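Just curious: can you write a single protein's sequence together with how it folds?
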Amino acid sequence: MRLVELRRLSIRTQSKVHFRLRNGMECIVTEHGIAQVPALKGIPDFNLEEELAAASDFLLEPAGVPDHKSDKKNPSKPRSITRAQLAGMVSDSSSAGTAQEHDEE
């Protein structure tokens, strides 16, 4: 799983994906596909692609975008997922996106 795939997933699902870096900081891939490290105060001494490869646990958080299907009294809550679960979501999302692109031609 690569960072670009994670960015596409966060955009398609309109959710934020959190993962811990080895130095203790947290990276958040926003619903806009932007990877942010909020605690970063200067030039990073790490590579996000390598940090993602080392991450094993992720937090999937709905971005709070209102949709008519969700229950306003019971909004979706962040959920903890494993690397394998996230990789499955990425591959499902990639195959769905590829099918849509071919249908449009």
Summary: The chain has three helices and five strands. The chain has a mean pLDDT of 85. The beta strands are 15-20, 26-29, 35-36, 57-62, 79-82. The chain has one domain: 3-103.
